[in-house]
Design a protein that fits this description.
19 helices, single chain, 6-stranded parallel β-sheet, Rossmann fold, 10-stranded mixed β-sheet, alpha/beta
């Protein structure tokens, strides 16, 4: 866990931080007596949880989260008289969590109908607009009885915790599942200090018009209940300001990045999220990583191209495979001595589009392998697993790291992988990834839709001279070390202190 310095501690003294997100920081893995395994509390996956764990641990914040399933409800049942459950991770860190109890059908509509895929697809420009989405009575019901209801329940729990604290509340909302909650909290606690960080890209005003005006306006009114709204990139800030100006006809100051709303100034700022280099170095030295590296070396060819991703449609896995196929067509000298290793984690398999996409990924890899395979060699090594130590071992070994999302808020793989890599591998990076703002000058930039350009970038990366590889890799490592997770937190807290009423 990163160390929070005295400066940051001073920024948050005499306030009660409340972190509000859909998912709790830790997940329960029940004991398995047959296998002799004890109960564990493991860190949730994803950049949001990893980033906010740092702040929660350092400030003793209360984390408000949904009781999403039976395992979360078991943890919620262990709450103390004040209504919060103290969860202790294996590394000894403790978190106070206030679980929001939500009826199953309402949560399903809120999460699996509205948040994913409807809002997620809007944020990542994924809708095939000639065919989808269909905004019908079922969507309106899911919005009213799912998304808005769950947001109201979150807001009620935040209000409860804020009002019983001895200190002024500092409320930190996270991401796209909770857009409507801040306005409700603002109405109940007008002097609350609230910030909302959005981890996904913010699309153009026109793309928001996929949603009926009642829904998209509720999203903006909800967000504007905050004092500060944080985004990953300057492009996201610009799109948000334009959305407020064009879709709600609000007064906006683009120079000061401010929206004037109901007599208040609401600030929009970019805070590119990052990782903790020290923690990653410690994890990379874990014995399990060394074990996985030994296994990788038994099959690793001369050239190794790696991608580590969730099987989300936004990650653009299929075009990455097609670009690799194109490279092999154009440069057959790489047949037999190069492997594209796709280490993937299943994503949202309860949603039909995601199941179909995973099937397409598997089918395309099989076709390319059938076309090019030779004795004792296949061009694509496809693994679907969720093993952080194996991912770290892959990070240490690659020659080329392909990160080609259609759109991404940040994409921490680009930062994590380059931190750990030992051969000074080359980053091939989509210009639509949030991380491109910081790392693009050292990466090989690609248009994620252009198969030939991506194929050319893969070839260029494999043939790049050693000195150039090292210069680029060192530049990325310097950038990530300088802009680490602690700086991400510090910049937000500094703006909260300077821009919000005290």
């Amino acid at each position: 866990m990163p160390t929070i310095g005295p400066y940051i501690r001073r920024l948050i003294q005499h306030v009660q931080p409340l972190i509000v997100s859909n998912r709790a920081p830790l997940s329960l893995v029940p004991a398995d007596p047959i296998r002799g395994e004890r109960e564990q509390l493991v860190r949730g996956s994803g950049g949001l949880v990893s980033a906010m764990l740092t702040l929660a641990n350092a400030t003793h914040a209360i984390w408000i989260a949904a009781a999403r399933n039976e395992r979360d409800r078991i943890l919620a049942s262990r709450a103390e008289p004040d209504g919060t459950a103290t969860l202790r991770a294996d590394d000894g860190t403790q978190y106070r969590v206030g679980f929001v109890d939500i009826e199953h059908e309402a949560y399903d509509m809120y999460y699996n109908v509205i948040s994913n895929p409807l809002l997620w697809f809007i944020h990542h420009y994924l809708w095939d607009l000639a065919r989808e989405p269909l905004i019908d009575a079922s969507i309106h019901r899911a919005w009213n009885d799912g998304y808005e209801l769950v947001n109201r329940k979150f807001a009620e729990r935040v209000i409860l915790e804020a009002k019983r604290s001895d200190y002024p509340p500092l409320i930190l909302f996270q991401d796209y599942q909770l857009y409507c909650a801040p306005r409700i909290v603002r109405q109940a606690i007008p002097n609350a200090t609230m910030q909302h960080f959005i981890h996904v890209p913010w699309p153009t005003p026109q793309y928001w018009k996929i949603l009926p005006s009642s829904m998209r306006n509720s999203i903006l009114h909800g967000l504007l209940g905050n004092d500060i709204i944080g985004f990953q990139t300057r492009r996201d800030v610009r799109n948000f300001l334009l959305t407020c100006e064009e879709n709600l006809a609000l007064e906006v100051d683009h120079r000061d990045q401010t929206v004037f709303y109901e007599g208040r100034a609401v600030w929009a700022r970019s805070y590119p999220i990052s990782v903790d280099p020290r923690e990653f170095q410690i994890m990379a030295e874990h014995p399990s990583v060394a074990t996985q590296e030994k296994e990788i070396l038994t099959w690793r060819p001369k050239h190794l191209i790696l991608r580590v991703d969730r099987t989300d449609l936004s990650k653009n896995i299929i075009r990455g495979f097609l670009a690799y196929e194109r490279m092999l067509e154009q440069h057959p000298e790489y047949i037999g001595n190069t492997v594209f290793w796709a280490f993937l984690q299943e994503s949202r398999q309860d949603i039909g589009d995601y199941r179909a996409y995973l099937g397409n990924v598997v089918g395309l890899a099989a076709r390319i392998n059938h076309r090019f395979r030779e004795r004792n060699w296949m061009p694509i090594k496809l693994e679907i697993d969720n093993d952080i130590y194996r991912a770290l071992a892959g990070y240490k070994q690659f020659d080329v790291l392909l990160v080609n999302p259609i759109y991404d808020g940040m994409n921490l793989v680009a930062k994590e992988g380059m931190l750990c890599n030992e051969p000074n591998g080359v980053l091939v990076l989509s210009e639509n990834a949030g991380s491109h703002d910081e790392l693009g000058q050292y990466a090989l930039s690609i248009n994620p839709f252009d198969i030939d350009e991506t194929a050319d970038a893969l070839f260029r990366a494999l043939t790049m001279e050693r000195g150039e590889r090292k210069r680029r890799a060192d530049g990325i490592r310097r950038t990530v070390h300088a802009n680490d997770i602690t700086r991400w937190i510090a910049r937000q807290l500094q703006d909260i202190r300077e821009l919000t009423p005290q």
